[in-house]
């Protein structure tokens, strides 16, 4: 895959994720953050299962399948993914769609900083002024006053750390193992099992909620999980994490456009 194709896949993923913020916020009207995450990831991985199985068999015929020990990093990706999404879902309850999209994008400067701390790759000097600009933009979105921030914004900011870790390590894992579809499926499975189990333990659930909120699960599961996160894993095999973070940050624009569209039509 050429770098340009990989960039286009990342841009498509960003557009999908940005548009999904509206569905995520509406989904919280019917489900808790753990159950909503678990249900949509189970839907996403079920759609991906045939492709993952086919890719696994292809690698097995080449005698290139990883050992069980080599598969553990995929579980780590699932844990990072699930933590980031649940924190974001908790925050979305009490913040706006545009704020959630913008604050999530704080992972942009964090990715090169993590590469510096974990891999010894020093970031470009522009990272630091861009970080200040990011926080200034957050300040403006909050209404130009610090009391515009609320608890939901804090949860979303915390989630950005896990998004940054996920973007950083996805590139490493897919470069080492190959099998991007299998990796995507594996991380979805871990995320879905853990969040659904926690949701069933700590959150209320009934069939009426499922009937009322099935569309938000379908949108998030098919588009955001089944397509968006899968495109991310495939594309990051052919681009560096810092470059991927910059392209994926365009989800902020799509989140704002989605929020504007909803308000204009509502």
Structure described in brief:
The chain has eleven helices and no strands. It is an all-alpha fold and 266 residues long.
In terms of topology, how is this protein built?
Elements: H1 3-27, H2 33-61, H3 72-92, H4 97-104, H5 107-119, H6 127-141, H7 151-177, H8 180-202, H9 207-235, H10 241-248, H11 251-265
Helix pairs in contact: 1-4, 1-9, 1-11, 2-8, 2-9, 3-7, 3-8, 4-7, 4-11, 5-6, 5-7, 5-10, 7-10, 8-9
Question: In words, what does this structure look like?
Answer:
- 80% of the residues lie in helices and 0% in strands.
- It has 11 helices and no strands.
- It has helices at 3-27, 33-61, 72-92, 97-104, 107-119, 127-141, 151-177, 180-202, 207-235, 241-248, 251-265.
